[in-house]
C-alpha cells in the first residue's frame, strides 16, 4: 500500500471531480479527449453567431430598409451587448450554477433565439406592401417582423452571454496546470481552440451569406439553429469524461469584494499596524505587495487573508491592459460593418454570372487565421523559445501588442484603399450613381482582411489566454468574460463615434462621412481616425505592459 499511494497521488487531477463528484485520474478524464467535445460545441456556436452577425448589416439595410449609419449603429450595439453579457453569465456560473449547467441553459436560450429569428425572417417583408386594400395588414406584419427580429436577436445575445465565457474556461479546465505535460497542452489548447472557431466561422461566412442573399434569409438563419441543436447533443455525450471544478464554499466575488470594503474601512490605519502582515506578503512567491499597497490595509483584523488580498490586486492589475485594448476592439468592429459595405460597391465577379456576397469577404480573415495559427504554434513558438528561452516563445503581453500594431497597419491600408475607391468612382463619373458597380476589383480589399486575420492570431488568442491565466482560479469564467467585454465596449465606442460623426458632419444638407451613397461618403477619414485612436491606445498599452507583473512564473 505504501508503494501504490504516491503513484495514485501523482495521477490524481487536482481541484476537479467527475460527473459523480468523485476524484478523477488524469489518465481517464479530461485532456484532449474531453476538449474535443467542448471545442465542437463552441465551433457550432461560432457558426451560428457569425452566420447572423457577418451579414447583419446587409439584412438591416436591404430587408428592413435602415440607413447605412443606423444599421452600423444597430450592429455595433447588438455586438456590444452580446460581448458584455458574458460578465453576467460568468458571475452566475462561478457563483451559483457552475460552468457545465450554465452552458446547457445558455444553449437552450440560444436555440430559442435562433428559432424565433428564423420565424421573423419568414414573415412578410416590409417591402411587400403594394396593395392599398391591405395596408393595415401589411403594416401590422411589418411591425411584428421588426419587433420579433430584434427580440430574437437579443435572445441570441443572452444565450451567448452564458455560453461564451463558460465553454472556453470549461475546456481549459480539462488540462491540469500543475502537470508539466498538461500545462504545455493547455497553451496549445488556446491556439487550436481558436483554429477550430475560425474554421467554423469560415464555413458560416462562405456558405450562409450566399444562402441568405441568393436563396432565403429564413433558411440562412434556420441552418445555425439546427447546428446548435446537434452541438448540444454532442456536448452532452461527453459528460462522463469531463473534469468539473470543485466549487469554493465562499464565493470568490464575496472574498475579493470583502478586501476592497475592509481596505476602505481601515484606510486610516497606521502603517505600523499592518507591517507584520505586509512582511508576510513579501514571503509569498511572485509577491506583488508593492503594488496597490492600500489593499494591504484589509489584512488588519484578520478579516481577509493574504491570498484574498493578492487576488484582489491581480484583478486591479488587469484594468490598464483591459482599457488599452479598447483601441484594437474599435478596429475589430469595422470588419463586419463598413468593410462589408465598402466591398458591396466593388466588382465582386468571380466568373461570368457569379458574384460573391460582400459579407463573404470576411472569409479571408478566418482563412488567414486558420493558415497562420499552425505556423505560429509549430514554427514561430519553437524558434522564439530557442531565442528567448521562455516557455511560450514570447510573453502573452508581447503577443497581444504585436497584434495591436498589425491592426493599426490594417486601418492605414483600409484608408488608402478607400481613397483609391473614391478616386475610381470619380474618374468614371459614378459619384452620383451608388447602385452602379465601381470598376475596381474587390481583391483590393484583400490586404486589410488578411492583415486583420494575422493580428487576430496574436491579439485575440493572446487576450483569451491572458485573461484566463491571470485571474484567480475560481474566477476564470469572469476572466474570459472580461476579455469579451473589451469587444463589447469597443463596439459601443464605435457606435458612439459613428453617431457623433454622423451628427457633426451631416448637417446643413451636407453628405456625412457615412452617407448612404458611399461614393460621396468619407470612410477614409473615419479609418484614419480609428488608426489614430488605436495608435494612442497602443502607446499607453506599451507603458502598462512593460511594468506588468505576472501572477504565475510559468506564464513568463
From TrEMBL:
It comes from Quercus rubra (Northern red oak). Belongs to the major facilitator superfamily. Proton-dependent oligopeptide transporter (POT/PTR) (TC 2.A.17) family. Keywords: Membrane, Phosphoprotein, Transmembrane, Transmembrane helix, Transport. SUPFAM superfamilies: MFS general substrate transporter. The chain crosses the membrane at residues 103-124, 144-162, 192-211, 217-237, 315-336, 356-376, 397-417, 449-468, 480-501, 525-544. PANTHER family: OLIGOPEPTIDE TRANSPORTER-RELATED. This is Protein NRT1/ PTR FAMILY 5.10-like. It is a multi-pass membrane protein. GO terms for cellular component: plant-type vacuole membrane. It is found in: Membrane. One of its GO terms (molecular function) is tripeptide transmembrane transporter activity.
